[in-house]
Amino acid sequence: MTANLTPKATFDFINVLSQAAAKYKEPKSIRPSAEILVKALLQAEKTAKQQKLTYPFEFLLGKWQLCFVTGTKKNRGSGGIVLGNGFYVPKFMAIHVSFNATLEQDSDRGEIANQVELNAVSLKLTGPVQYFGKKNLLAFDFNQMIISLFGRVIYNRAIRAGKVQTEDFYNQPIAKLPFFGFFLVTEDFIAARGRGGGLAFWIRET
Q1: Is the residue at 31 inside a domain?
Q2: What is the pLDDT of residues 131-141, one digit of tens each?
Q3: 143: Cβ–Cβ under 8 A, 6 or more apart, which residues?
């Protein structure tokens, strides 16, 4: 369910995002509308740029549930890319991303795991990450796939989807890798723009 907020609340992006994060966990709750949430995310991104905010990699560590996402579409007039309509991820499908650091002290390297759970089936992709703190950019690549059924692993192999092997990943320029540009990181939720231009909003799981 969605509901419009007052015009004033549109510019209070922290309040809107906090409300969306809290209401998403509650069944049959009234959430901020997709339009209002996109505006809040764009305002958060604008604020981060204006204030030149930076976040350490350690703030991203943990498990996050994808709450809201937007796609992108081509602008027929200019030929550029614009945001598509945003939507809340359906509750019957759980999508999580988790970030873990390496054992090296003060390291901005680690591992990403992206997991999709639908009924008894779980699909998990893992791979290396590198965080560029001055720009809040997290580059990643998936090179391992794990499929589970009723909690039992039935497939666990390296995949060719990864552009580079893990040992070569850290020598690759970020322009050749997928990445997230984080513009808001709090204890309860994080938000980023992907390389393709779409926005994503996660809430903390663990």
Answers
A1: no
A2: 999 999 999 99
A3: 126, 127, 128, 158, 159, 161, 162, 165, 166
